[in-house]
Design a protein that fits this description.
The chain is mainly α and about 140 residues long. Helix content is about 50%, strand content about 0%. It is globular. Bound molecules: zinc ion (ZN) (2 copies). The site of one zinc ion (ZN) has 9 residues, from helix 3.
Length: about 140
């Protein structure tokens, strides 16, 4: 019993993550699904989502040290790196919080058009927005 070697818990939980995630799956499936849904509608478009994912994956993601100024409401409440506006503004305008494009809404309208084409009924912007809100609020 001389010295305890290598038992120091450093800030690198990487090795244990696999075993943990198995347990989590079993435990709170519904919460996890909810979280994933929220993540999917995190205020950014598909393209930006991929970019962010990529950055995280390759450790290129730099977290903000302090909130940035939102380009819409001009308040310092952009807490996500690479975003140009805050989440509330992005939801309100239904644009991507990162690139500012109307991708979320366009995508939704396209989908609705596809399904309702037979009835010759095109949804209004309001209808589409309403549907989008429902998806995002959960
Ligand atoms: Zn804002
Ligand atoms: Zn985007």
């Amino acid at each position: 019993m001389s010295s305890q070697k290598g038992n120091v818990a450093r800030s690198g939980p990487q090795k244990h993550q696999n075993t943990f995630s198995f347990k989590n799956h079993k435990f709170d499936k519904s919460i996890q699904t909810q979280k994933i849904n929220v993540k999917l509608h995190d205020g950014v478009c598909q393209h930006c989502k991929e970019v962010l994912k990529w950055r995280v994956k390759y450790s290129k993601y730099k977290a903000l040290s302090k909130p940035k100024k939102c380009v819409k409401c001009l308040q310092r409440r952009v807490k996500d790196s690479y975003h140009i506006m805050c989440k509330p503004c992005a939801y309100e305008l239904e644009v991507c919080a990162k690139c500012g494009k109307k991708t979320l809404l366009c995508h939704l309208i396209k989908n609705q058009k596809k399904t309702e084409n037979i009835g010759n009924k095109v949804p209004t912007i309001e209808e589409a927005a309403e549907g989008m809100k429902k998806v995002m609020v959960i």
